[in-house]
Fold these 2 entries.
Entry 1:
Amino acid sequence: MAVNFQALAEEFTKFYYAQFDSDRSQLGNLYRDHSMLTFETSQLQGAKNIIEKLVSLPFQKVAHRISTLDAQPSSPEMGSVLVMVTGELLVDEEQNPQRYSQVFHLIPEGGSYYVFNDIFRLNYS
Amino acid sequence: MAVNFQALAEEFTKFYYAQFDSDRSQLGNLYRDHSMLTFETSQLQGAKNIIEKLVSLPFQKVAHRISTLDAQPSSPEMGSVLVMVTGELLVDEEQNPQRYSQVFHLIPEGGSYYVFNDIFRLNYS
């Protein structure tokens, strides 16, 4: 296929984290009613519930830094993309970043992509 | 849907890591010709290439310990499952485990599942 999955994943995550870190209430367009988010031990379904959860997270300032980003096509025919990110999260006035792992499953729709699956975990040591 | 995705993912990963840690040359049945493995910066396709890569890894003894395991259905209709694992890897005589993150995308086939996507990354700090 002609799609460059790695470049697409890099473009998506760059946009996603920039939007998350500046105003995460505006991420709703990236999810659909059947989209799922696992955030630590919480499980949410649907754009509205997912955004409510993200907005409710107990920090004001947040910055994501990507350490590794890997992408693969997630189906032989439909152009969907699986992305795994490992990175660091810096919140509020904390000096020490927290390491995290996150998976996005992106589904093509009308020339763009939406998030069908989103799984986020902090890496405790 | 009636499938318990979390239980299925736990059963799969338990089997996968037990087989990996005892004899990883026998994992070939879990992959197909169109399966993909990203292992750190290496990208492989096909059961044969994937197993060659896994067997070539430079350790004799290996043990995986799961820290977190999350699962979601990866499509509205076909019963496929997305799994994200964070865990610790202990190799040979090393005393300090290495943290890792891994994604499996499992596709149903004949009453069982095979691995279509497999992405593995050590978490460097």
Entry 2:
Amino acid sequence: MANGEHSLIAKVMNRISQKITSGSLNQGTKLPSIRSMARTIQVSVSTVTEAYERLAAQGIIRSRPGSGYYVAISTPLLSLAESSPKLDREVDPMWISRQSMEAGKDVLKPGCGWLPASWMPEAGIRRALRELSRADSASLVDYASPLGSLPLRQILARRLIEREITVSAEQIILTESGTQAIDLLCRFLVKAGDTVLVDDPCYFNFHALLRAHRVNVVAVPFTPTGPDLELFAKAISDHSPRMYITNSAIHNPTGAVMSPNTAHRLLKLAEQAEMTIIEDDIFADFEREPVPRLAAYSALGRVTHISSFSKTLSASVRCGYIAVRQDWVEGLTDLKIATSFGGSRLSAELVLTLLTDGTYRKHMDGLRARLSRSMIEATAKLEELHIKPWVEPKAGMFLWCQLPHGIQAADVARVALADGIVLAPGNAFSLTQSAGSFMRFNVAQMSDERLFRSLAKALEVCS
Amino acid sequence: MANGEHSLIAKVMNRISQKITSGSLNQGTKLPSIRSMARTIQVSVSTVTEAYERLAAQGIIRSRPGSGYYVAISTPLLSLAESSPKLDREVDPMWISRQSMEAGKDVLKPGCGWLPASWMPEAGIRRALRELSRADSASLVDYASPLGSLPLRQILARRLIEREITVSAEQIILTESGTQAIDLLCRFLVKAGDTVLVDDPCYFNFHALLRAHRVNVVAVPFTPTGPDLELFAKAISDHSPRMYITNSAIHNPTGAVMSPNTAHRLLKLAEQAEMTIIEDDIFADFEREPVPRLAAYSALGRVTHISSFSKTLSASVRCGYIAVRQDWVEGLTDLKIATSFGGSRLSAELVLTLLTDGTYRKHMDGLRARLSRSMIEATAKLEELHIKPWVEPKAGMFLWCQLPHGIQAADVARVALADGIVLAPGNAFSLTQSAGSFMRFNVAQMSDERLFRSLAKALEVCS
């Protein structure tokens, strides 16, 4: 069969499959006859016949002799979309991240969780790539070592020690991303049916990631100084969780910082309950005055510390890491090899160059200043619209705001989306759906005046 | 506390932790007193005190008041090493891959599963990196789109169509590696306790990967034309498996090719049993005369096709992909985002360049010729030692050989390792440990005469 014919058949198959997955063709629905389909989409009868037969072979459609073809999708075992609470597209976290990833240049993304490309150290990355083009051949073509680049791990250890986290390079495992770091720890520490605690609100991908592990997720209300400890203690006695995932400094989405007293009491609870705390610290370098981390209080005992460079250097260069108690390194590394056969040596080399040639330090100094200016401007403009910050973040890009009385964030998001603006309504971050009147803003994505005009309009429409 | 002091404490902690994980300090063993430890390793008493206290806080050691400190490791939930059959280090697959990844320049690796760095298209990669340093900023700093680079997926689709696999770019999901591709499919299709079929022998990382998913792995004996279909049918009726993972062309470790008849009957069995076949085709481009793939017979129905460029272009640039039925794309992509928040855009750009600028095609033409020469040479040299190929591979780098009568591959591997040679004894690939007299050789890693001298010696010692 000619390639052209092959791809034509594939096109027809996709046209039908997509209608099925999008829901516009439901299970049991009868498909148009082969002839009428061939007419409608202007292809030969033989092409449609072949397409129908292959879709039938795939179990996507079924043929009833003498009657025609009918939709019959077989569903897989695990579908996050199905296992998640049914949400409108506009407030479905999965969809928000995918929208933000796919959004074109003209779309505004105050709801997305990262910085604009123009804020990243582009020149430094270009320089690092040119340097990499002269690296030794092993760096270019060989597998990374199981833990990943030693020089990079040594630098990361030094950086953590500066934050009072006692660690050595042998306790650091490089990963592809912060997400992969948490995923590995979940594989290592929990099994289906276990309970894991998260904050309410928290980074929405924690919900999706934990659903992928089929664990029971329990959300503990978050206060401006950290999780509500009375409810945290109650969650422990009610569910005996194995794990708690949080950001201890620059919390996503609230921008709040955990107080030393909360941290201390939280650790005592975790120790009594023999549960592990995963401290996701990917926003660490945005901080202006560092506060002690949970990992510093516990010396990587009950606490495992993870981070990455996706928010600070590049999301295209994937590089994260786990800082963990020594006796877990071996097992976690086996898991990393088994499930990914090691990380990207190239990405690690690139990050190493940017950390050692001064690019990173200079870039972050500028970024912190720029973010604090944007934070002030965005806060002022939002307050003109009576959108009030829940806390005044000390640093970072996130502003967690309450909308004027009675207005639902999901409604506002829907209206704004029509104007090509992707917002992040509060319930996307709330397992209990109790943040309906909140919205997470990214102050680095709010320079365009269109946003505020559209917001003003949306608030009016929705009030 | 000074940073120097911090890192000194960490050093002491590691020294002890490593002794514990390596097994030289067992659970319950009493540690040296703080003073004697301080003397032995030449650090201050306060440093050792601090290190002991932190190890105690980590639950790695326990203090018994008035008696001293004792080893008390807490084990995690999932440890692949523990869940795998107890093997000597020399035949432990996990260990072989890690050895091969860590091995220094002077070590010979005829047991490893990839090509020497000098065989990879180094110049092309350097050129591609320089080109990438001039790419648009989005490619350098932004997240990839959920499915990954469309231009790359379009090229991959065309390449698959050339192999008679009917697919469109919308059915291709980019991943970090072939391993991550299979891992995603396992998450999507199986749950703990399900049964998955593999070949006996098969690529050893399948065992580790499947253990990480806590599934029941059943191995079906592999013949020179594919799996033994009678035993395959029996395994289906005995275990009603959900999935089967194999390489249909250039099988690892045997180098055998599945016959069309076996493929056809295998697919019928899979369709009756409603099980999914994962076709891992990472050695596809080594083939000299392409044979039809399972994915071509089934039009991506019962069969999901995965591959990567780790074996052909670079293992440092991580880029693999899944070609899958349209109605699974959405769910798999959600899982990919949830567990890794997308792949490396940079790696995809790099692979795209190498596929489009002609580097890849030229490189593979040369590689195929070079491999067939090496295959002939290695076969001849091994036969001088009465080491006989099980089949004569049509292509690829692997030679699955039977050792002279009565000689155990594990013993030979142990002797060779003393000479700095990492071999891959048969049982590393055999779930049932029934390949004790076989050895997998990588003909691309056998140019050094030391290997054959050492092999000759080892055979003599072990016979």
